[in-house]
Design brief:
This protein is α/β, with parallel strands linked by helices. The chain has eight helices and six strands, in the order H-E-H-E-H-E-H-H-E-H-H-E-H-E. It has a single domain (41-193), classed as P-loop containing nucleotide triphosphate hydrolases (Rossmann fold, 3-Layer(aba) Sandwich). The protein has helices at residues 3-35, 53-66, 84-92, 106-109, 112-130, 144-148, 154-162, 179-184, and strands spanning 43-47, 71-75, 96-100, 137-141, 169-173, 187-190. The protein has a six-stranded parallel sheet, sandwiched between helices. Helix 3 links the parallel strand 2 and strand 3 (96-100). The longest helix is centred in the N-terminal third of the chain and has 33 residues, at 3-35. The chain is globular, with a radius of gyration of 22 Å. The model has no long low-confidence stretch (mean pLDDT 92). The site of magnesium ion has 4 residues, from helix 2.
């Protein structure tokens, strides 16, 4: 066998091995897809210390809007600062309803009674969306902090999420949130902070951080 023809034989072997490996993987994936039979909305929690929780939630917002679905977005904490995603939705997305608590971070307001009153007003909007089957997707951005600071009753939140319309999906974002919230969610992603440019002194950038 020439070195050229043995090289071809080895390449074929590599290709064959790859094909067999991929075939097995396809069988595993297809078997799982065939096994899954439940059709309903999903409850997703994006938590952890890394960057990407809110931006992931808005990724799902745009996916849903892309299918003509109706989306409700409630932002706890946020609203004092501008954000690109909210600007875009307000200008271009008639199928999305946004409500912002608008008080900014609790370490900025430094007023507990006012924060609690604002979070309760905001929760009324969230609860209304979670009871309305016209909303295909509801995003509750930074909701976990309302639980963490005990501004809102945890069981009230868990009940509203558990009893939402069957076809409705919900995305909750924010660090923490507690075991009970994690248990009621179908999908929980813990976004890990490996590093963040902020720690190296890089200022928050429009289009990336806000
Ligand atoms: P994003 O909105 O970018 O998806 P996030 O929702 O995961 O971020 P938040 O805790 O809500 O994170 O903070 C929002 C802002 O803080 C963004 O400007 C984001 O870049 C920044 N941020 C997120 N994670 C970190 C981190 N680990 N260290 C410093 N800044 C962070
Ligand atoms: Mg966020």
């Amino acid at each position: 066998m020439t070195s050229e023809s043995s090289k071809t034989a080895n390449q074929k072997t590599d290709q064959q091995l790859h094909k067999e490996k991929m075939q097995k993987q396809k069988e595993r994936v297809d078997a799982q897809i065939a096994k899954n039979s439940i059709e309903r909305g999903v409850a997703i929690l994006m938590t952890g210390n890394g960057k990407g929780k809110t931006s992931s939630a808005f990724g799902m917002v745009f996916r849903a809007l892309g299918y003509g679905q109706r989306v409700g977005i409630v932002q706890f904490i946020k609203g004092a600062q501008e954000s690109g995603e909210v600007n875009f939705i307000r200008q271009h997305c008639d199928n999305a309803e946004i409500y912002q608590m608008g008080t900014g971070f609790t370490w900025n307001t430094q007023d507990k009674a006012a924060d609690i009153a604002a979070s309760e007003r905001t929760w009324v909007v969230a609860e209304r969306m979670l009871a309305d089957d016209q909303f295909d997707l509801v995003v509750l951005d930074e909701l976990t902090y309302m639980i963490g600071y005990k501004y809102l009753d945890r069981s009230k939140i868990i009940d509203a999420i558990s009893n939402r319309p069957r076809e409705q999906s919900v995305v909750v974002t924010g660090r923490g949130g507690g075991r009970e919230l994690r248990e009621v969610m179908d999908t929980v992603s813990d976004v890990k902070n490996v590093k963040h440019g902020y720690a190296a002194g890089i200022k928050a950038r429009r289009g990336v951080d806000c």
